[in-house]
UniProtKB/TrEMBL annotation, chain A:
Residues 83-104 are annotated as: Disordered. It holds the Pfam family PaaB. This is Ring-1,2-phenylacetyl-CoA epoxidase subunit PaaB. InterPro entries: PaaB, PaaB_sf. Residues 89-104 have a biased composition (Basic and acidic residues). It comes from Natrinema hispanicum. The lineage of its organism: Archaea, Methanobacteriati, Methanobacteriota, Stenosarchaea group, Halobacteria.
UniProtKB/TrEMBL annotation, chain B:
InterPro entries: Aromatic_CoA_ox/epox, Ferritin-like, Ferritin-like_SF, PaaA_PaaC, PaaC. It comes from the Archaea. One of its GO terms (biological process) is phenylacetate catabolic process. It comes from Natrinema limicola JCM 13563. Pfam families: PaaA_PaaC (PF05138). NCBIfam families: PA_CoA_Oxy3. GO terms for cellular component: cytosol. Gene3D superfamilies: 1.20.1260.10. This is Phenylacetate-CoA oxygenase subunit PaaI.
Length: 104, 290
């Protein structure tokens, strides 16, 4: 049985998928994951999830975000001068998020 | 044990001659057990039942090597260096129990797990008896070692529960227990009765070997019986001098320097590269722990 493993670097972070382990049950999966995925990287917590319990939808099945222009979903689409302070804050947030994504 | 209440030894300089001998004896028991067991564990690399068990076993071996290093480092305070302690030491100067030097039969995973279990329970009990050791360098290291031991015990018990879940597995576990139990008893044999008496009198270890063995036997029997495994009783003689040795002891105890033939070949294998390269020093690739 395959268990997908999710690692959290430090408290408050998201658990991020980092690989899997073969194990007969949850208890053994945790023991194996502890060594296989927690021994060389900073680890605060690990989750194990039976692979078969994970649901998936991908680009073959779905058009994520739709196919038509829905840029109104993003606050910066509203080019009104001067921008409302909420819009400005939202825009800053978005730019910052994009910058971080670019770095990562 | 009266001395344990007020006396405490901050370093090797505070020990008299008898205490020096006792502390060294205690450290050699601890360090040699860990070193030799780790060396045996590594034989399972790429041979364990699954990749995951393989990596876990290797990880446990690395932990035990780390513990051996912690204890050998304290021995350096008595003037030894690593070549004296490991690479150039004679086989019969090693003080480990003959439990840890026994070879594994090919593919006998039950043996590895039973051995790990018998050893880890003994280590756990022993470490707790060292928590209040009057010798500070030992006392200070106990927490670090115990921190890694929980995993070892959990690993061994979880495996045992699963191995003993069907008839074939239970039989393999029972065979391993029958075979290894007498060797496990040597964990609690003194290296020397007089030195052992000093270890207890000066509070270097909080309990004597007989007390440790009783606790170990109860704990091991309770658990193994709960998964359908029979554990031999302890047959103790009516007459004894200082230490009470059970009748079931194997021919070679290890603690007294008398080992089975397997040890010499294992040591040769361990030191083969060192010997072949004509080395007279130990290579260091990382800093000491403390």
């Amino acid at each position: 049985m395959i268990w997908e493993v999710f690692r959290q670097n430090q408290a408050g972070d998201y658990h991020t998928h980092c690989g899997n382990v073969h194990a007969p049950d949850r208890e053994m999966a945790l023991l194996f994951a502890e060594v296989q995925h927690g021994r060389r990287k900073p680890t605060n917590s690990l989750w194990v999830v039976p692979q078969e319990e994970i649901g998936e939808v991908d680009t073959e099945d779905a058009k994520f975000g739709g196919t038509t222009n829905k840029s109104y979903r993003f606050a910066r689409t509203y080019n009104v001068e001067p921008a409302a302070e909420e819009v400005e804050a939202s825009e800053k947030e978005l730019t910052e998020a994009e910058r971080k994504r670019g770095e990562a | 044990m009266a001395a344990a209440d007020d006396a405490t030894f901050a370093s090797t300089d505070d020990l008299d001659e008898a205490e020096q001998e006792a502390v060294q004896d205690l450290l050699f028991r601890l360090a040699d057990d860990e070193l030799v067991l780790a060396e045996r564990y590594t034989e399972w690399q790429v041979r364990a039942p699954t990749l995951e068990s393989d990596i876990s076993m290797a990880n446990i071996a690395q932990d035990e090597l780390g513990h051996a290093r912690l204890w050998y480092e304290v021995l350096k305070g008595f003037g030894y260096d690593e070549t004296d302690l490991i690479w150039e030491r004679d086989a019969d100067d090693f003080r480990h129990s003959t439990l840890v030097e026994q070879p594994f039969a090919e593919g006998d995973w039950a043996d590895a797990i039973v051995r790990a279990y018998l050893y880890d329970v003994a280590e756990d009990i022993q470490l707790h008896a060292l928590k209040n050791s009057t010798f500070e360098p030992i006392r200070d290291r106990v927490g670090k070692v115990l921190g890694e031991e929980d995993y070892h015990l959990e690993y061994a018990t979880n495996w045992l529960e699963r191995l003993a879940a069907d008839d074939e597995g239970r039989e393999n576990v029972q065979d391993a227990v029958d075979r290894l139990y007498p060797y496990a008893l040597t964990l609690f044999e003194p290296t020397d009765e007089e030195v052992e008496a000093t270890i207890v009198e000066r509070g270097l270890r909080g309990e004597d070997l007989v007390e440790l063995r009783d606790t170990w036997h109860d704990r091991v029997s309770d658990f193994l019986e709960s998964i359908g495994i029979e554990v031999p009783g302890l047959d103790l003689p009516d007459q004894y001098d200082v230490h009470i040795s059970p009748d079931e002891l194997p021919e070679h105890l290890g603690r007294d320097g008398d080992h089975t033939d397997h040890w010499e070949s294992l040591l040769d294998e361990m030191t083969e590269a060192y010997d072949e390269l004509g080395r007279d020093y130990a290579t260091h690739i990382m800093d000491d722990d403390e």
